[in-house]
Amino acid sequence: MSLAADLSSKFLSVSEPSPHVLHVELSRKPVNAFSVEFWTAYAALLDRITHEGRDVRALVLSSAIPKLFTAGIDVADLGQSSNEAAPIDQARQALHTRLHLQEFQHAIGAPERCSFPVIAAVHGLVVGLGIDIISACDIRYAAEGTQFTIKEVDVGLAADIGTLAYLPKISGNGSLMRELAYTARYFSAAEALQLGLISTVVPGGREGVIAKALDLAKTIASKSPVAVSGTKRILLHSRDHSVAENLEYTAVWNAAALQTSDITESLKATRERRAPVFSPLSKPKL
Question: Would you identify the family this protein belongs to, as annotated (predicted)?
Answer without folding.
Answer: Belongs to the enoyl-CoA hydratase/isomerase family.
